[in-house]
Amino acid sequence: MHCYSDDVDIAALMVKAGFAKDFPKYSGGFYSSEQDFAKEGQLGIWQ
Question: Which residues have C-beta within 8 Å of that of residue 15, sequence separation ≥ 6?
Answer without folding.
Answer: 21, 22, 31, 34, 35, 38
